[in-house]
Amino acid sequence: MPTRAKGEVLHEYIVIGLLTEKEPVTPIYKMQTFASNAVIAKSRFWYFISMLRRLKKANGEILECKESVLLNLRTSFPVNDTDSLDNSYGSAEGIHGRFQSSADVENDYFPL
Fold first, then answer.
1. In CATH, what number is assigned to the domain containing residue 25?
2. How many CA atoms are closer than 13 Å to the CA of 72, on its beta-carbon side?
């Protein structure tokens, strides 16, 4: 079963749900999943929770479903003062690599 259509971007969602019972103390389940939208993220939550615990959608409720912003911070590229080129190729003698970098002469730490 595909979780996204062709060409859609996956986002990271955090889904929190619990079992609605008459008991005062019920466990809260938290799951981190990748989906194309919030509806699919909730559906995946119920799918995996029903496999792990005896919990159905009819007997539980979703407390929160939010998109994680931490993923965007982790995957953003760091600001780098050097431009580099990394090239590797294979030949009859083996695999060869070349790394070439050029640094900026003037930067904030060492002004000229």
1. 3.10.20.10
2. 6
